[in-house]
Amino acid sequence: MQNALVPTAAPLRYVCLPSCAALVTKQIQGYCGTGVAYCTDPDCQWQFGTCDSSTTPAGPSTLNDPRPLLGSVSYDNDIIDCTQQNVVALTYDDGPYLYTNQLLDTLKQFGFHATFFMTGNNLGKGPIDTTAPYPTIIQRMIAEGHQVASHTWSHYSLSNITSDERKQQMVKNERAIANIIGKYPTYMRPPYSQCNAASGCQADMKALGYHRVYFDLDSQDYLNPLPTQIHASFDIVASLLANPAAYDYLSIQHDIVQQSVTNFSSYYFGLIQAKGWKGVTAGEYLGDAPANWYRTPGAAASTSTPISLSTSLSTTTTAKTSTTSSSPSIKPSTSVSVPTAIPTCIVKAGQFCGTILPFGDKLDCQKSAASCYAQSSNCEDAVSKKDRLHCNKYKADCARLTKYCSTCGFQCSSPEFLKSWWKDKSGLIGLGGEIGERRTWIWLLAGFFGHCWGNR
Ligand SMILES: [Zn+2]
Hints:
The structure is a single chain. By secondary structure, the chain is α/β, with parallel strands linked by helices. The radius of gyration is 21 Å and the shape is globular. The chain has 3 domains: 4-51, no CATH class; 87-307, Alpha-Beta Barrel (TIM Barrel); 347-452, no CATH class. It is built from 13 helices and 15 strands. Strands 4, 5, 6, 10, 11 and 12 form a 6-stranded parallel beta sheet that branches. A 3-stranded parallel beta sheet has the order 3-9-8. Strand 14 and strand 15 (352-354) form a beta hairpin. 51% of the residues are buried. Zinc ion binds next to loops.
Protein backbone atom coordinates (compact mmCIF):
# COMPACT_ATOMS: atom_id res chain seq x y z
CA MET A 1 0.00 0.00 0.00
CA GLN A 2 1.16 3.52 -0.57
CA ASN A 3 -0.10 7.03 -0.11
CA ALA A 4 -1.00 5.83 3.33
CA LEU A 5 -0.07 9.16 4.83
CA VAL A 6 -2.80 11.03 2.97
CA PRO A 7 -5.74 8.65 2.91
CA THR A 8 -8.50 11.20 2.40
CA ALA A 9 -7.17 12.61 -0.87
CA ALA A 10 -7.10 10.70 -4.12
CA PRO A 11 -3.44 10.49 -5.19
CA LEU A 12 -2.46 12.11 -8.47
CA ARG A 13 -0.08 10.45 -10.86
CA TYR A 14 2.42 13.11 -11.80
CA VAL A 15 4.70 13.49 -14.76
CA CYS A 16 8.14 14.75 -13.86
CA LEU A 17 9.79 17.46 -15.94
CA PRO A 18 11.63 17.96 -18.20
CA SER A 19 10.18 15.65 -20.83
CA CYS A 20 6.52 16.10 -20.00
CA ALA A 21 6.37 19.67 -21.19
CA ALA A 22 5.46 18.63 -24.71
CA LEU A 23 2.58 16.43 -23.61
CA VAL A 24 -0.76 18.13 -23.90
CA THR A 25 -3.32 15.37 -23.64
CA LYS A 26 -6.24 15.91 -21.33
CA GLN A 27 -4.83 13.48 -18.84
CA ILE A 28 -1.44 15.14 -18.61
CA GLN A 29 -2.45 18.79 -18.31
CA GLY A 30 -1.80 20.11 -14.84
CA TYR A 31 0.26 17.10 -13.85
CA CYS A 32 3.70 18.25 -14.98
CA GLY A 33 6.31 19.61 -12.64
CA THR A 34 9.45 19.13 -10.60
CA GLY A 35 10.21 18.36 -6.97
CA VAL A 36 8.88 15.89 -4.44
CA ALA A 37 5.21 16.20 -5.42
CA TYR A 38 5.92 15.20 -9.02
CA CYS A 39 9.06 13.08 -9.05
CA THR A 40 8.52 10.53 -6.29
CA ASP A 41 7.33 7.04 -7.03
CA PRO A 42 5.01 5.24 -7.24
CA ASP A 43 2.98 8.21 -8.57
CA CYS A 44 5.69 9.66 -10.83
CA GLN A 45 5.39 8.56 -14.47
CA TRP A 46 8.88 7.40 -15.28
CA GLN A 47 7.99 6.96 -18.94
CA PHE A 48 8.17 10.72 -19.43
CA GLY A 49 10.83 11.98 -17.04
CA THR A 50 13.17 11.19 -14.18
CA CYS A 51 11.68 9.83 -10.97
CA ASP A 52 13.36 9.35 -7.60
CA SER A 53 13.66 5.64 -8.36
CA SER A 54 15.54 6.23 -11.61
CA THR A 55 18.81 5.52 -9.77
CA THR A 56 20.65 2.20 -9.82
CA PRO A 57 22.51 0.89 -6.75
CA ALA A 58 26.29 0.53 -6.95
CA GLY A 59 27.83 -2.89 -7.49
CA PRO A 60 27.46 -5.68 -10.05
CA SER A 61 23.90 -6.52 -11.07
CA THR A 62 22.44 -9.68 -9.57
CA LEU A 63 20.35 -10.26 -12.70
CA ASN A 64 22.25 -13.30 -13.87
CA ASP A 65 22.88 -14.83 -10.45
CA PRO A 66 22.07 -18.53 -10.17
CA ARG A 67 18.71 -18.92 -8.47
CA PRO A 68 18.07 -22.44 -7.21
CA LEU A 69 14.69 -22.76 -5.47
CA LEU A 70 15.65 -23.03 -1.82
CA GLY A 71 13.63 -24.97 0.77
CA SER A 72 10.20 -26.59 0.44
CA VAL A 73 7.85 -23.61 0.71
CA SER A 74 5.92 -23.10 -2.53
CA TYR A 75 7.27 -20.81 -5.25
CA ASP A 76 4.15 -21.43 -7.35
CA ASN A 77 1.27 -20.35 -5.14
CA ASP A 78 0.35 -17.10 -3.46
CA ILE A 79 1.11 -17.65 0.22
CA ILE A 80 -1.76 -16.40 2.37
CA ASP A 81 -2.02 -18.82 5.24
CA CYS A 82 -0.36 -21.81 6.83
CA THR A 83 -0.77 -24.46 9.48
CA GLN A 84 1.22 -23.09 12.41
CA GLN A 85 -0.42 -22.89 15.81
CA ASN A 86 -0.60 -19.91 18.15
CA VAL A 87 1.48 -17.46 16.17
CA VAL A 88 0.98 -14.26 14.22
CA ALA A 89 3.40 -13.68 11.38
CA LEU A 90 4.04 -9.94 11.70
CA THR A 91 4.82 -8.33 8.36
CA TYR A 92 5.52 -4.67 7.58
CA ASP A 93 5.40 -3.14 4.10
CA ASP A 94 6.80 -0.01 2.44
CA GLY A 95 9.63 0.79 4.88
CA PRO A 96 12.21 1.39 6.10
CA TYR A 97 11.04 4.82 7.09
CA LEU A 98 11.13 7.40 9.86
CA TYR A 99 9.42 5.17 12.41
CA THR A 100 11.06 1.80 11.74
CA ASN A 101 13.68 2.08 14.49
CA GLN A 102 10.97 2.69 17.06
CA LEU A 103 9.11 -0.37 15.80
CA LEU A 104 12.27 -2.45 16.30
CA ASP A 105 12.37 -1.19 19.90
CA THR A 106 8.78 -2.31 20.49
CA LEU A 107 9.37 -5.72 18.88
CA LYS A 108 12.40 -6.18 21.14
CA GLN A 109 10.38 -5.30 24.19
CA PHE A 110 7.91 -8.09 23.40
CA GLY A 111 10.51 -10.58 22.18
CA PHE A 112 8.71 -10.76 18.81
CA HIS A 113 10.15 -10.99 15.31
CA ALA A 114 8.81 -9.52 12.07
CA THR A 115 9.33 -9.64 8.32
CA PHE A 116 10.01 -6.33 6.60
CA PHE A 117 8.92 -6.13 2.97
CA MET A 118 11.03 -3.15 1.96
CA THR A 119 10.97 -0.75 -0.96
CA GLY A 120 14.39 0.41 -2.16
CA ASN A 121 13.80 3.97 -3.35
CA ASN A 122 10.44 5.72 -3.46
CA LEU A 123 8.37 8.26 -1.53
CA GLY A 124 11.38 10.54 -1.91
CA LYS A 125 13.12 8.70 0.95
CA GLY A 126 16.32 8.09 -1.04
CA PRO A 127 18.08 4.81 -1.90
CA ILE A 128 18.08 2.56 1.17
CA ASP A 129 21.73 1.57 0.78
CA THR A 130 23.12 5.12 0.68
CA THR A 131 20.67 7.17 2.76
CA ALA A 132 21.16 7.37 6.52
CA PRO A 133 19.84 5.94 8.74
CA TYR A 134 18.40 3.14 6.60
CA PRO A 135 21.53 0.94 6.27
CA THR A 136 21.95 0.95 10.06
CA ILE A 137 18.28 0.13 10.61
CA ILE A 138 18.40 -2.78 8.15
CA GLN A 139 21.57 -4.16 9.73
CA ARG A 140 19.83 -3.93 13.09
CA MET A 141 16.90 -5.98 11.71
CA ILE A 142 19.27 -8.80 10.82
CA ALA A 143 21.17 -8.59 14.11
CA GLU A 144 17.93 -8.84 16.09
CA GLY A 145 16.51 -11.85 14.24
CA HIS A 146 14.02 -10.21 11.89
CA GLN A 147 13.55 -11.15 8.25
CA VAL A 148 14.41 -8.74 5.44
CA ALA A 149 12.27 -9.21 2.32
CA SER A 150 11.47 -7.32 -0.88
CA HIS A 151 8.53 -5.09 -1.78
CA THR A 152 10.26 -4.04 -5.05
CA TRP A 153 12.50 -1.07 -5.79
CA SER A 154 9.83 1.60 -6.24
CA HIS A 155 6.38 0.13 -5.66
CA TYR A 156 4.90 -0.17 -9.13
CA SER A 157 2.10 -2.60 -9.85
CA LEU A 158 4.01 -5.63 -11.12
CA SER A 159 1.03 -6.72 -13.23
CA ASN A 160 1.09 -3.44 -15.16
CA ILE A 161 4.72 -3.23 -16.28
CA THR A 162 6.79 -5.30 -18.69
CA SER A 163 8.74 -8.39 -17.75
CA ASP A 164 12.04 -6.53 -18.09
CA GLU A 165 10.83 -3.71 -15.88
CA ARG A 166 9.62 -6.21 -13.28
CA LYS A 167 13.03 -7.86 -13.20
CA GLN A 168 14.68 -4.47 -12.75
CA GLN A 169 12.28 -3.70 -9.90
CA MET A 170 13.47 -6.84 -8.11
CA VAL A 171 17.14 -6.79 -9.11
CA LYS A 172 17.76 -3.17 -8.10
CA ASN A 173 16.31 -3.87 -4.68
CA GLU A 174 18.45 -7.02 -4.40
CA ARG A 175 21.62 -5.06 -5.13
CA ALA A 176 20.74 -2.35 -2.60
CA ILE A 177 19.88 -4.87 0.12
CA ALA A 178 23.03 -6.89 -0.60
CA ASN A 179 25.07 -3.68 -0.32
CA ILE A 180 23.79 -3.41 3.27
CA ILE A 181 23.66 -7.00 4.58
CA GLY A 182 25.72 -8.97 2.04
CA LYS A 183 22.74 -11.05 0.83
CA TYR A 184 19.31 -10.53 -0.70
CA PRO A 185 15.90 -12.05 -0.02
CA THR A 186 13.90 -14.96 -1.43
CA TYR A 187 10.62 -13.59 -0.04
CA MET A 188 8.63 -10.79 -1.68
CA ARG A 189 5.22 -9.17 -1.47
CA PRO A 190 3.79 -7.57 -4.63
CA PRO A 191 2.83 -3.89 -4.26
CA TYR A 192 -0.97 -3.45 -4.22
CA SER A 193 -1.11 -7.28 -4.02
CA GLN A 194 -0.88 -7.22 -7.81
CA CYS A 195 1.09 -9.99 -9.48
CA ASN A 196 -1.18 -11.97 -11.75
CA ALA A 197 -0.44 -14.93 -13.99
CA ALA A 198 -1.71 -13.27 -17.18
CA SER A 199 0.96 -10.54 -17.06
CA GLY A 200 3.73 -13.10 -16.58
CA CYS A 201 4.50 -11.71 -13.14
CA GLN A 202 4.07 -15.00 -11.30
CA ALA A 203 6.40 -16.79 -13.69
CA ASP A 204 8.96 -13.99 -13.39
CA MET A 205 8.92 -14.13 -9.60
CA LYS A 206 9.48 -17.88 -9.67
CA ALA A 207 12.31 -17.48 -12.20
CA LEU A 208 13.90 -14.97 -9.83
CA GLY A 209 13.44 -17.42 -6.95
CA TYR A 210 10.86 -15.50 -4.93
CA HIS A 211 8.06 -16.70 -2.66
CA ARG A 212 5.02 -14.46 -3.15
CA VAL A 213 3.67 -13.67 0.32
CA TYR A 214 0.25 -12.10 0.89
CA PHE A 215 -1.73 -11.99 4.16
CA ASP A 216 -4.94 -13.15 5.83
CA LEU A 217 -5.19 -10.41 8.45
CA ASP A 218 -5.24 -6.80 7.28
CA SER A 219 -5.14 -4.47 10.27
CA GLN A 220 -5.92 -1.59 7.86
CA ASP A 221 -3.42 0.71 9.56
CA TYR A 222 -2.94 2.53 6.23
CA LEU A 223 -6.63 3.42 6.20
CA ASN A 224 -6.53 4.68 9.77
CA PRO A 225 -3.34 6.76 10.01
CA LEU A 226 -4.60 9.54 12.28
CA PRO A 227 -4.66 9.40 16.09
CA THR A 228 -8.44 9.75 15.85
CA GLN A 229 -8.69 6.83 13.41
CA ILE A 230 -6.23 4.18 14.52
CA HIS A 231 -8.72 2.76 17.07
CA ALA A 232 -10.48 1.17 14.09
CA SER A 233 -7.38 -1.01 13.59
CA PHE A 234 -7.42 -1.84 17.30
CA ASP A 235 -10.99 -3.11 16.87
CA ILE A 236 -10.10 -5.22 13.83
CA VAL A 237 -7.27 -7.14 15.49
CA ALA A 238 -9.10 -7.42 18.82
CA SER A 239 -12.06 -8.98 17.07
CA LEU A 240 -9.97 -11.42 15.01
CA LEU A 241 -7.77 -12.46 17.93
CA ALA A 242 -10.88 -13.06 20.07
CA ASN A 243 -12.08 -15.67 17.59
CA PRO A 244 -11.76 -18.98 19.46
CA ALA A 245 -11.49 -20.89 16.16
CA ALA A 246 -8.39 -18.98 15.01
CA TYR A 247 -5.06 -20.73 15.28
CA ASP A 248 -2.73 -18.32 13.46
CA TYR A 249 -2.63 -15.20 11.31
CA LEU A 250 -0.42 -13.79 8.58
CA SER A 251 -0.77 -10.11 9.32
CA ILE A 252 0.06 -6.96 7.34
CA GLN A 253 1.02 -3.54 8.71
CA HIS A 254 3.01 -0.57 7.38
CA ASP A 255 5.98 0.98 9.13
CA ILE A 256 5.48 4.18 7.11
CA VAL A 257 2.30 4.81 9.13
CA GLN A 258 3.35 6.65 12.27
CA GLN A 259 0.32 5.69 14.35
CA SER A 260 0.78 2.06 13.42
CA VAL A 261 4.22 2.14 14.99
CA THR A 262 3.80 4.54 17.90
CA ASN A 263 0.32 3.62 19.03
CA PHE A 264 -1.06 0.45 17.45
CA SER A 265 1.94 -1.90 17.66
CA SER A 266 2.24 -2.14 21.46
CA TYR A 267 -1.52 -2.66 21.76
CA TYR A 268 -1.50 -5.35 19.07
CA PHE A 269 1.57 -7.14 20.41
CA GLY A 270 0.04 -7.01 23.89
CA LEU A 271 -3.09 -8.76 22.62
CA ILE A 272 -1.00 -11.44 20.93
CA GLN A 273 1.00 -11.97 24.11
CA ALA A 274 -2.13 -12.03 26.32
CA LYS A 275 -3.55 -14.81 24.13
CA GLY A 276 -0.43 -16.85 24.78
CA TRP A 277 0.70 -16.49 21.16
CA LYS A 278 3.82 -14.90 19.77
CA GLY A 279 4.83 -12.71 16.84
CA VAL A 280 7.13 -14.38 14.30
CA THR A 281 8.62 -13.81 10.86
CA ALA A 282 6.93 -15.10 7.71
CA GLY A 283 9.81 -17.57 7.29
CA GLU A 284 9.33 -18.97 10.80
CA TYR A 285 5.59 -19.07 10.25
CA LEU A 286 6.11 -21.22 7.15
CA GLY A 287 8.60 -23.51 8.88
CA ASP A 288 11.34 -22.41 6.48
CA ALA A 289 14.93 -22.46 7.77
CA PRO A 290 16.58 -18.99 7.90
CA ALA A 291 19.27 -20.20 5.46
CA ASN A 292 16.54 -20.31 2.79
CA TRP A 293 15.45 -16.70 3.28
CA TYR A 294 18.37 -15.19 1.35
CA ARG A 295 20.80 -15.60 -1.53
CA THR A 296 24.39 -14.44 -1.79
CA PRO A 297 25.20 -12.19 -4.78
CA GLY A 298 27.12 -14.06 -7.46
CA ALA A 299 26.97 -17.35 -5.57
CA ALA A 300 27.67 -20.35 -7.77
CA ALA A 301 25.14 -23.14 -7.94
CA SER A 302 24.68 -26.12 -10.19
CA THR A 303 20.90 -26.35 -10.36
CA SER A 304 19.84 -23.03 -11.74
CA THR A 305 19.12 -21.18 -14.93
CA PRO A 306 20.31 -17.60 -15.21
CA ILE A 307 17.61 -15.20 -16.34
CA SER A 308 18.07 -12.45 -18.84
CA LEU A 309 16.31 -9.37 -20.08
CA SER A 310 14.62 -9.86 -23.41
CA THR A 311 15.42 -6.34 -24.57
CA SER A 312 17.62 -3.55 -23.34
CA LEU A 313 15.91 -1.15 -20.99
CA SER A 314 15.29 2.44 -21.84
CA THR A 315 14.21 5.29 -19.64
CA THR A 316 11.98 6.50 -22.45
CA THR A 317 9.90 3.41 -23.06
CA THR A 318 6.48 3.94 -24.54
CA ALA A 319 3.68 4.77 -22.20
CA LYS A 320 2.13 1.71 -20.69
CA THR A 321 -1.49 1.31 -19.99
CA SER A 322 -3.20 -0.97 -17.61
CA THR A 323 -3.11 -4.66 -18.42
CA THR A 324 -6.68 -4.98 -17.35
CA SER A 325 -7.70 -5.79 -20.89
CA SER A 326 -6.40 -9.26 -20.23
CA SER A 327 -8.45 -11.58 -18.09
CA PRO A 328 -7.99 -10.98 -14.39
CA SER A 329 -6.61 -13.95 -12.56
CA ILE A 330 -9.52 -14.90 -10.37
CA LYS A 331 -9.29 -17.85 -8.03
CA PRO A 332 -10.90 -20.22 -7.75
CA SER A 333 -11.74 -19.67 -11.39
CA THR A 334 -14.93 -21.67 -11.40
CA SER A 335 -16.65 -20.03 -8.44
CA VAL A 336 -16.37 -16.28 -9.06
CA SER A 337 -18.21 -14.31 -11.69
CA VAL A 338 -17.32 -10.73 -12.59
CA PRO A 339 -20.25 -8.31 -12.21
CA THR A 340 -21.00 -6.06 -15.16
CA ALA A 341 -22.26 -2.96 -13.35
CA ILE A 342 -21.39 -1.23 -10.10
CA PRO A 343 -24.09 -1.99 -7.52
CA THR A 344 -26.07 1.03 -6.35
CA CYS A 345 -24.73 0.51 -2.85
CA ILE A 346 -21.25 -1.01 -2.63
CA VAL A 347 -21.88 -1.29 1.10
CA LYS A 348 -25.24 -0.91 2.81
CA ALA A 349 -25.67 -0.59 6.56
CA GLY A 350 -28.79 0.83 8.22
CA GLN A 351 -29.57 4.10 6.48
CA PHE A 352 -26.08 4.29 4.95
CA CYS A 353 -25.54 3.49 1.27
CA GLY A 354 -21.90 3.74 0.15
CA THR A 355 -21.67 4.34 -3.58
CA ILE A 356 -18.90 4.32 -6.15
CA LEU A 357 -19.63 6.79 -8.94
CA PRO A 358 -19.18 5.40 -12.48
CA PHE A 359 -16.22 6.85 -14.37
CA GLY A 360 -14.65 6.74 -17.82
CA ASP A 361 -11.18 8.25 -17.47
CA LYS A 362 -8.45 8.87 -14.96
CA LEU A 363 -9.68 12.23 -13.72
CA ASP A 364 -13.21 10.92 -13.25
CA CYS A 365 -11.70 7.94 -11.45
CA GLN A 366 -10.01 10.25 -8.97
CA LYS A 367 -13.24 12.19 -8.50
CA SER A 368 -15.06 8.95 -7.82
CA ALA A 369 -12.43 7.97 -5.25
CA ALA A 370 -12.64 11.37 -3.56
CA SER A 371 -16.43 11.02 -3.38
CA CYS A 372 -15.99 7.56 -1.88
CA TYR A 373 -13.74 8.88 0.89
CA ALA A 374 -16.04 11.82 1.54
CA GLN A 375 -18.96 9.41 2.04
CA SER A 376 -16.90 7.03 4.17
CA SER A 377 -16.12 9.78 6.66
CA ASN A 378 -19.87 10.11 7.26
CA CYS A 379 -20.45 6.39 7.56
CA GLU A 380 -19.77 5.97 11.26
CA ASP A 381 -22.20 8.77 12.11
CA ALA A 382 -24.90 7.09 10.06
CA VAL A 383 -24.70 3.56 11.46
CA SER A 384 -24.98 1.91 14.85
CA LYS A 385 -21.81 0.81 16.62
CA LYS A 386 -22.25 -2.81 15.65
CA ASP A 387 -22.40 -1.82 11.98
CA ARG A 388 -19.03 -0.04 12.02
CA LEU A 389 -17.37 -2.99 10.31
CA HIS A 390 -19.39 -2.09 7.23
CA CYS A 391 -17.78 1.36 7.27
CA ASN A 392 -14.37 -0.31 7.34
CA LYS A 393 -15.39 -2.46 4.38
CA TYR A 394 -16.47 0.60 2.47
CA LYS A 395 -13.24 2.45 3.31
CA ALA A 396 -11.31 -0.57 2.07
CA ASP A 397 -13.22 -0.34 -1.21
CA CYS A 398 -12.39 3.39 -1.44
CA ALA A 399 -8.74 2.45 -0.96
CA ARG A 400 -8.98 -0.16 -3.72
CA LEU A 401 -10.46 2.46 -6.02
CA THR A 402 -7.73 4.96 -5.12
CA LYS A 403 -5.05 2.39 -5.87
CA TYR A 404 -6.74 1.55 -9.14
CA CYS A 405 -6.84 5.24 -10.16
CA SER A 406 -3.15 5.62 -9.39
CA THR A 407 -2.06 2.58 -11.41
CA CYS A 408 -4.52 2.32 -14.28
CA GLY A 409 -2.63 4.47 -16.77
CA PHE A 410 -4.86 6.60 -18.94
CA GLN A 411 -7.58 4.02 -19.51
CA CYS A 412 -9.46 4.13 -16.25
CA SER A 413 -13.03 2.90 -16.49
CA SER A 414 -15.63 1.53 -14.12
CA PRO A 415 -15.84 -1.89 -15.84
CA GLU A 416 -12.05 -2.36 -15.64
CA PHE A 417 -12.10 -1.32 -11.99
CA LEU A 418 -14.88 -3.79 -11.30
CA LYS A 419 -12.71 -6.60 -12.58
CA SER A 420 -9.84 -5.67 -10.29
CA TRP A 421 -12.23 -4.90 -7.43
CA TRP A 422 -13.83 -8.30 -7.63
CA LYS A 423 -10.48 -9.96 -7.95
CA ASP A 424 -9.25 -8.16 -4.83
CA LYS A 425 -12.33 -9.19 -2.91
CA SER A 426 -12.02 -12.80 -3.97
CA GLY A 427 -8.28 -12.62 -3.36
CA LEU A 428 -8.72 -11.97 0.35
CA ILE A 429 -7.60 -8.37 0.38
CA GLY A 430 -9.29 -6.79 3.37
CA LEU A 431 -10.14 -10.13 4.88
CA GLY A 432 -10.96 -8.57 8.22
CA GLY A 433 -14.15 -7.08 6.87
CA GLU A 434 -15.12 -9.99 4.70
CA ILE A 435 -14.44 -13.03 6.75
CA GLY A 436 -18.09 -14.01 6.81
CA GLU A 437 -18.47 -14.19 3.06
CA ARG A 438 -18.82 -17.66 1.68
CA ARG A 439 -16.50 -16.91 -1.21
CA THR A 440 -13.75 -16.00 1.24
CA TRP A 441 -14.06 -19.32 2.97
CA ILE A 442 -13.78 -21.17 -0.32
CA TRP A 443 -10.61 -19.20 -0.91
CA LEU A 444 -9.33 -19.85 2.58
CA LEU A 445 -9.76 -23.58 2.18
CA ALA A 446 -8.09 -23.51 -1.22
CA GLY A 447 -5.21 -21.56 0.27
CA PHE A 448 -4.96 -23.78 3.31
CA PHE A 449 -4.65 -26.99 1.36
CA GLY A 450 -2.87 -25.51 -1.64
CA HIS A 451 -0.11 -23.65 0.10
CA CYS A 452 0.67 -25.61 3.19
CA TRP A 453 0.00 -29.22 2.46
CA GLY A 454 -0.02 -29.78 -1.24
CA ASN A 455 3.01 -27.75 -2.09
CA ARG A 456 5.41 -27.92 0.80
ZN1 LIG B 1 3.14 -1.38 -0.38
